Amino acid sequence: MSESFDVLVVGGGINGAGIARDAAGRGLSVCLCEQDDLAAHTSSASTKLVHGGLRYLQQGEFALVRKALNERETLRQLAPHLIAPTRFVLPHVRHLRPAWMLRAGLWLYDHLGRANPHFPPSQRIDLRRDPSGAALQPAYRTGFTYADARVNDARLVVLNALDAHARGAQIRTRTRCEQLIRHRDHWWAVLRTANGDVQRVRARCVVNASGPWAGTVLERAGLDAPLGVRLVQGSHLVVPRLFAHDSAYLFQQPDQRVVFAIPFEQDFTLIGTTDTDYDGDPAQVQPRADEQTYLLEAVNRFVRVPVRAEDIVWRYSGVRPLLADHHRDASRVTRDYRLELDAAGAPLLSVLGGKLTTYRALAEEALGRLSPALPEMGAAWTAGGPPLPGGDGGTAAEMAEALQRDHPRLPPALLQRLASSYGTRAVGLLAGAQTLDALGQDHGGGLYDRELDYLIAHEWAHTADDVLWRRSHLGLRVDAAQREALSATLQARVSMP
């Protein structure tokens, strides 16, 4: 028996989840299918920032930076527990860029976006006196600061999927779109689940939000692959915390690129990213040895205590589907997006390019492009609409304080993590639990039965990777034996779709 929908979204990354949420909130019937887990690939492999993109100013991308800066505040309001405004420190390297150029770029960055107390304006600092200078080599005496924000990228995807589901959308993970058959006013889609079951669904419109697989989806629809898409690999390293403060760094490099060093999960520092052309299977991408060498050299140009390869506790890489342009250097390729609508019959909209920060604006624009085929849809609503699930309790610090009042015998570090991951949803997750014993078995790293049961029941978690690397980053805190035991537990508790 087949089901009918207004919109079928193919792809469960940030763009697909954002479009599904927007569409469901406009009263449309929506089905989202994802061949793996939500945020399994590109959307969990970012530098985990909500930012305008300071370096894009050098490339003249003023419109993109303005859009991203304005979206930065919109997203902070949507998920204040998940998005953390952060001070970024930019050490001045005299032989790379003169100070006046940096001041001019930062002034423009300040003024392209709306004034906001959560993102204060840039300023010049003395690194010999500022706490951020203690971790740097003494040769760096002057720097600049500016404001952007950190985010748990995969959880942002999950929150959008949760909200879409609450508004009536079907979220089908581990379900591959194997074929799309076009008719004049509808599509038939053949979907295959992980256990081999085949489903047929009917949809008035299809949105191809499959990222690096956009061409594959179009081929399955009998259409030509998109022109002008360039696959670029970005890799990151995680090491034990390099500095005591909570500011991040932007390190300029001799090749005109920049590398971030960002506080990560309390006890670690995230270093990234690279930009390397990629032509393999996006699902198999891994950090390359030369990328690791590049990132270590990049950070060691600045930090007082060198970072060694043996310090690395996690490496990850993702493939970005960027819009090809005239730049030979992959790092200079635009992070803007393009929406391609094929309306020769039932509409198919392909999402090409984009960045994490602009996903909401992209989704709103995508629904606008589909509105002629779906005239009954409601008006745009996500810019000033209600927050994402869990976002109605304020910042992570405010939420953690509330949880501590209600659960004074639970460890503050655990409550802080739950607050920053789940926001007000942590209240229900912890309901009635005043001791660790009440949370059930600890599967390692502070992952208790209560949280695991919640992830299985409400957030489509099926595997150890879903739990340890996407719904959380507790993979940094568990050993191989604990991971194997968790896999066995999940196999016993979860039935795959």
What brief labels describe this structure?
single chain, alpha+beta, FAD/NAD(P)-binding domain, D-Amino Acid Oxidase, Chain A, domain 2, Helicase, Ruva Protein, domain 3, eight-stranded mixed β-sheet, globular
What would your notes on this structure say?
The protein has three domains: 3-42 and 154-226 and 335-370, FAD/NAD(P)-binding domain (3-Layer(bba) Sandwich), CATH 3.50.50; 84-148 and 230-325, D-Amino Acid Oxidase, subunit A, domain 2 (D-Amino Acid Oxidase, Chain A, domain 2, 2-Layer Sandwich); 392-493, Alpha-glycerophosphate oxidase, cap domain (Helicase, Ruva Protein, domain 3, Orthogonal Bundle), CATH 1.10.8.870. The model has no long low-confidence stretch (mean pLDDT 95). Helix 1 packs parallel to helix 4 (153-166), helix 1 crosses helix 7 (359-370) and helix 8 crosses helix 9 (412-422). It starts with a strand and ends with a helix. Strand 12 and strand 13 form a beta hairpin. It is α+β, with helices and mostly antiparallel strands and 497 residues long. It contains 13 helices and 18 strands.
